[in-house]
Amino acid sequence: MSNSPINVDRLLDRFEYDRPFLQELFGIFLESMEEHLGVLDQANNQHDAIQGREAAHIIAGASANVGAEAVNASASKLESHYISKDVNAAAKELVRLKEECTKTKVFILDYLKTNE
What we know:
It is a single chain. This protein is mostly helical. It has one domain (8-114): Up-down Bundle (Four Helix Bundle (Hemerythrin (Met), subunit A)), CATH 1.20.120. It contains five helices and no strands. The protein has helices spanning 8-14, 19-46, 49-65, 69-83, 87-114. Helix 2 (19-46) runs antiparallel to helix 5 and helix 4 (69-83) packs antiparallel against helix 5 (87-114).
């Protein structure tokens, strides 16, 4: 198993080797991820479980679309913590989610740079 946050070969196979589409999808994912991480920070600071759940759900879905499995797993856990209104567990999971998002962002930016 690869240590890459995303299995690009699997994605390319899924999208019939349409590299321009994959590059566009990655760009959209990065924008959405950044936006919703900001929303999660705000939700965490305000102890807003509803806003946190919604943002975590969006990141979980978007990460599933690009095959970012670690981001998806963490965002799904975070969503569950918000559903159960466990803001302390949510705050801890948000730290893990940010770490996974950073790894994934670095990977995607490197992929986009080397596949221009």
